[in-house]
Amino acid sequence: MNPLLAALDAGVDLPDFAAVRPEHVSPALDRVLADAESALERSAGDGVPASYGAISAVLDVAVERLQRVWGMVCHLQAVADTPALRAAHAENLPRVTDLYTRLASDARLYAKYKAVAASAAAPALTPVRRKVLADKLRDFVLGGAELEGAAHERFAAIQARTAELSQRFGEHVLDATDAWAYYADEAELDGVPDDVREAARERAWAEGRSGHKLTLQMPCYRPLMQHAARRELREHLYRAWAVRASELGDAAHDNSEIVRELVELRHEAAALLGYPSYAHLSLVPKMARTPEEVLAFVRDLARRARPHAERELAEMQGYARDGLGLATLEAWDRMFAAERLEQRRFAFSSQEVKQYFTEPRVLDGLFGLVQTLFGVAIRAERAPVWHDAVRFHRVWRDGEPIAGFYLDPHARAGKHAGAWMDDARARWRRPEGRLQHPLAYLVCNFAPPVGGRPALLTHDDVATLFHEFGHGLHHMLTQVDELAVAGIAGVEWDACELPSQFMENFCWEWEVIRRLSAHVETGAPLPRELFERMRAARNFQSGLAMVRQCEYALFDMRLHLERGWAGRVTALADAVAAELSPLRPAPFLRYPHSFTHLFDGGYAAGFYGYAWAEVLSADAYSAFEEAGIEDAATGARYRETILETGGSRPAMESFEAFRGREPRLDALLRHQGLT
Question: From the candidates 64, 468, 497, 504, which is the catalytic residue?
Answer without folding.
Answer: 468
